[in-house]
Structure formats: C-alpha cells, structure tokens
Design goal:
The complex is a heterodimer of chains A (about 290) and B (about 240).
Chain A lengths: L1 H9 L1 H27 L3 H23 L12 H27 L6 H21 L4 H9 L7 H20 L1 H9 L1 H6 L4 H23 L1 H18 L3 H26 L3 H25 L1
Chain B lengths: L2 E3 L10 E7 L1 E2 L2 E2 L4 E5 L4 E6 L5 H8 L7 E7 L4 E4 L13 H6 L3 H4 L7 H13 L15 H14 L4 E5 L7 H17 L3 E5 L3 H7 L2 E6 L4 E5 L1 H4 L9
Parallel strand pairs in B: 1-7, 6-10, 6-11, 8-9, 9-10
Antiparallel strand pairs in B: 2-5, 2-7, 3-4, 11-12
C-alpha cells in the first residue's frame, strides 16, 4: 500500500490535471449543491447530468455521421456547446416553473424533471447503441473514468467554474433569499426570475462541463451528497456552504487516490468517498443530538 | 404589473386605488370585479370562506398573480411590508432569525450589496419593537408560532412600509393570542403611519380593528366592499 501511495505521489505529474479538475468540480458542485438540497431539486441535478451527457453523445454521433467536424484543440467545443444548450434550455424551463409556483403553489416542476430525465436516459441509450466508439465511451461519460484530463480541458474548466464560484459566493445571500421566500422577494421588487435563471444556468454550465470532464455520476454525487453531509452537521448556512465545498473537493481527491490504489473506476470511487463523508456526518449528527 | 402614479406617498391620496379588478387563473375569473381604495393609516381586511378567492386577490394586488382586467394603482415609491403565512416558510432552510429579518432590507439595499449601519439600526429597532431581539441566534424553524409571527412582522417593518400586507396573521392562534398579535401589529403600523391590508378569519377582531372590509363569496359570486358594521353583523368566525 505504502509503495502504491509513493508511486502515486511520484507520478503526480500524470494525475495532477485530473485530480485538480475533480477537486475543483467537487468544490464548486458542493457549494452549489446547498441550493439543490434546500430547493428540493435533487433530481434537477440528475436530469441536468443526463441531458448534458446526451448533448455530448449527440455531438459524438453527429461527428460519426460526418455532419460536424472539429480540429484539435477545438474538438470539445461542439459537445460542450450542445450540452450547454440542452442544459440551459432545461434550466430556463425550470426557472419558469419555479416562478409559476409563486402565484399558484399547486404547480410543480416534478413532472418536467422526470420527463427530461427519462427522455435523456432513453436518448443516451439509443445514441450509445449507434456509436461506433462504443460502450466504453458511453460508460465514461455516464459514470466517469477520468484517469487523465488534458491541460486544455482543465484550463476551460477553471475559466468557467472559478468565476461562477466567485459569483455564487458574492450573491449567496440573495440567491438564498429568492429560494427561501420568493414571494417576499417579489414584493420587494427583487429580480427573482433573473437570480433563479442565474442559479439554474450556472448549475447547468458546471454540470455540463463536469460531465464532459469527469462523468455524470460524480458530478451528480458532488451536487447532492456533500451538501447533505454539511447540512446534517451544521445549522449555520454559511458554515454549511464552506463545509459542503470542502467535502466535495476532498471526496474528489480521496476518490481518485482510491481509484488509483485499487484500480477501480474513478467516478464510482469519488461517489463512494462522498457517501463515506455522509455516513460520518450522519453519525456525528446522531451523537450530537443524543448528548 | 402594478402601475404607479405621482412622485411620493401623499397622506391625502389613496395609497392603493383598485378599480374594477377581476382576478383569477388562466383568464378564468374567480370573483366578480372589485373596486376599493386604501388610504395611508387605514386598515382593510379581506374575509371569506376557504376557497373564496382571498389569496388570489391578495397575490394579484401584490403583483404575484396576473390580473384578468381592471386597474391596480399604487402611489409611486409605496413600499410594501409583506407578512406571509407562517406555514409558507419552508422549514428545510436552516435560516437564523437574524438572517431572515435582514432580508427585509434587501429591497432597499439592492442585489449583491452589503447592509449599511443604517440597515442594521432599522433591523435592531424592528426586533426590539416586536420583542424578538433575544431570538436573533435561533433558527426560524425552531420558534413557536407566536414567535415566528413576531419575527415575520419585524422583517416586514424593516422595509419601512407604507403598506403592511398580512396573510392570515392570526391563523392557528387562540383568540387571546390573536388579539395580542393584532394589537402589536396595529400599534407598530400606526407608529410608521402604514396602512394595513390583511386576510383574517376572526370576524370579531376584523370588525373591531378594520376601517374597511372586503367580503368575498365565490359561491354567490359576490365581492362586497364596505364598513365592518355594514357587512359583518351576525357573522361568527369564518373557517379557513
């Protein structure tokens, strides 16, 4: 075991980009995930992962049909563009649904989320069936097996995810306000729709980019499990945001390390690392409530 | 959208002027047209049975629900302090009382800006006035019904409102608690010279405190506006 860890550290140059990419996504998705949990839109994140994957797969399929072609280093532009377009459309529809709920509480976005999830999953299977790149690529996109991330990918991820992260830190209280009490926010003439669209679109962009970089499974996990753990541990929202981001980032690193040491798929390892933190957090919360 | 007129809030002009307003959903009216005016300092109560269209009317007046026809004219710069039903606040959010009351200043502060020392002063004054200063560190969801009501009132007062809109402020309170809550609300609204528009089921209380009543009856398709003595005689508590 010690030898393997030494080897992992010695060959750090090989894994550096992938580990940084995973940790950055864990950090940002963990932070944004607090809204996902509090908004009760966990399956929005799942549906976004799926529809984003569908965008990426469609781009592969169109390239296979020779309907589109992109030269290196721009081969990711169309997959990411398609993923962002589909995710953005879904995010905008969701923001519209949320706004409609202010006037009429009987309105629910659940059916829209379910329909998008099912449509995307079925689409993925159909497109995957016709892809000559085959099941390996489909599996990597869906479940994540990012053993290596090139510098261009990491650069793009940093350029997009870091500004989104900064904007979310800045607008944290405003986004919470429109999530918690959109009616009051509307009476104060607060830009409820604008902030919601920003929240959902930025979530969609991070998920699209994350799906293309490390796969849908870990991205979904980062946006759900670390915030669950943080909210179980802390009742202060500010602390929960920080804890969730840290748990997400740390889960990515530990998951990657575990994947290297035992030759398991990285996406599954990152997800299980998140789950380990959740179990730990729940245990601590249970102990705290007893004392 | 709510239209506004004039340059600043004038005590002699109606704060809110509603003319032939028809409310409903998906262009389907739930009530006949209603007209009324609300002057600064006046108390107007909306009463009616469950499903009579009270919430629809209130949401339409607040601009949350599109009107079918008619006019809603607020004086320009009229600030609204909204007190929602306590049950409308989702308990999943671990929001502290301090953070919740602060949001009452967000409309004045603007998106992404920090609260000023004046904002903090107003927040402290509102919490003191509603006897909620000792609750600031508590989570809103852990408070009792009466405490939650006082905190929501403190938040509404933070907007320095010209109009306080209260959605069933005495729901699930006993008569004594309801009277105490209303007495505090009326006193604080009077101090700020704010008008009150509220939905309430305690007819005796409504009759006692209101200058004007809007009585809704969806079954008989009627929406009457008048003095409590004209409209509420012989009525008990209306079930929510």
């Amino acid at each position: 075991m010690t030898e393997k860890i030494s080897f992992f550290l010695a060959s750090w140059e090989l894994w550096r980009n992938a580990v940084i990419a995973g940790s950055l996504l864990g950090l940002v998705c963990g932070f944004l995930g607090i809204y996902v949990i509090l908004h009760r839109i966990v399956f929005v994140s799942a549906a976004m992962s799926q529809i984003s994957s569908l965008g990426v797969m469609l781009a592969f399929f169109l390239a296979q049909l020779q309907l589109i072609q992109a030269q290196h280093p721009y081969e990711d532009v169309i997959p990411l563009g398609l993923a962002a377009l589909l995710t953005g459309t879904f995010a905008t529809a969701m923001a519209g649904q949320a706004q409609a709920k202010i006037a009429d509480r009987s309105k629910s976005a659940e059916s829209l989320i379910g329909a998008v999830y099912l449509f995307s999953t079925a689409g993925l299977l159909l497109v995957g069936d016709r892809l000559t790149q085959g099941a390996h690529d489909v599996s990597n996109i869906l479940f994540g097996n990012a053993v290596a991330v090139d510098a261009a990918h990491l650069g793009l991820l940093a350029w997009v995810a870091v500004p989104i992260f900064i904007f979310h830190i800045w607008l944290r209280k405003d986004l919470l306000f429109v999530s918690f009490d959109p009616t009051m926010a509307s009476t104060l003439r607060y830009p409820v729709v604008g902030l919601r669209v920003f929240l959902l679109i930025s979530l969609g962009i991070v998920i699209s980019l994350g799906t293309r970089t490390i796969g849908a499974l870990p991205v979904f996990a980062f946006s759900v499990i670390p915030p669950m753990a943080a909210l179980a541990l802390f009742s202060n929202l500010g602390v929960s945001f920080v804890a969730s981001a840290l748990i997400g980032g740390l889960s990515a690193f530990l998951g990657y390390l575990f994947s290297f040491l035992f030759s398991f798929p990285t996406g599954a390892c990152m997800t299980l690392a998140c789950c380990a933190f959740l179990v730990l957090a729940k245990a601590i919360a249970a102990l705290k409530s007893r004392s | 959208m709510i239209q506004t007129q004039g340059a600043s809030v004038s005590p002699s002009l109606p704060l809110l002027d509603v003319q032939a307003l028809v409310v409903g959903y998906s262009k389907s009216a739930v009530l006949p047209a209603v007209s009324f005016q609300l002057f600064p300092g006046q108390v107007t109560s909306i009463v009616g049975h469950n499903g009579s269209g009270k919430s629809t009317l209130l949401k339409t007046l607040l601009g949350l629900n599109p009107k079918i026809s008619g006019d809603i004219l607020f004086q320009v710069d009229a600030r609204i302090g909204y007190v929602p039903q306590r049950e409308a606040m989702d308990p999943i959010y671990p929001v502290s009382v301090k953070d919740l009351v602060e949001t009452g200043r967000y409309g004045i502060r603007g998106v992404g800006k920090r609260l000023t020392s004046k904002d903090h002063e107003v927040i402290e004054t509102s919490l003191l006035a509603t006897r909620a200063s000792h609750l600031t560190r508590r989570l809103f969801r852990t408070l009792s019904g009466g405490e939650q009501q006082r905190v929501l009132l403190a938040r509404a007062l933070c907007t320095e409102p010209h109009l306080l809109v209260l959605d069933e402020p005495t729901a699930s309170m006993d008569e004594k608690g309801a009277k105490e809550a209303m007495a505090m609300t009326l006193e604080l609204a009077a101090q700020q010279k704010a008008a009150i528009l509220m939905v309430n089921h305690f007819i005796d209380l409504v009759a006692e405190v209101s200058d004007q009543v809007i009585l809704l009856d969806r079954d008989h398709q009627s929406a009457k506006v008048g003095k409590p003595s004209e409209l509420l005689q012989g009525r008990g508590r209306i079930q929510s």
